[in-house]
Amino acid sequence: MNTDFFLIVLAFGQGSCRLSSGKNVFLTHKTDIMSKFGELIDANIPILLSFYTEWNDPSVQMHAVLRDVAAAMGDAGKVVKIDVDKNPKLAEALRVKGLPTLMIYKSGEMVWRQSGEQDANTLIGLMKDFV
Fold it and tell me: How far apart, in whole angstroms, are the C-alpha atoms of residue 125 and residue 121?
C-alpha cells in the first residue's frame, strides 16, 4: 500500500488548508473556493469530495475512512474534505443537504454522489472504477 498521500482539507474561508498529517499550510491570501472549484475537479483522475462539518458526528467519523481511501488510491485519485461551514456558497450551489455528502468528479463531471457514511472498501472500489 502506498503511504505517500495527501488528504486535502479545504478551509479557504479561513485562509488556510490543513493536510492529513495535521500540519497547517497557510495560504498567502484568502481564496474563494467557488472560483477554484472548476480547477479542483478538472482532473483526469477521480476526485472524491467529502462535505462535512466538525460538529456533525457522522462527518467526523468519516475522517479515518477518508485517510484510508487516500492511502489506498495514492496518485491514482485524490480525496478532498470541504468544510460546509467555511464554504457555504459551494455547499448551496451543489445542493449539499445531508452530512457527510460524498461526490466523485472526473474530468470536471460528477460521476457519483451519495449522502451518508460509507466504508473505505466501498469508496476505494468506486474510485478505482473511475481510474
Answer: 6
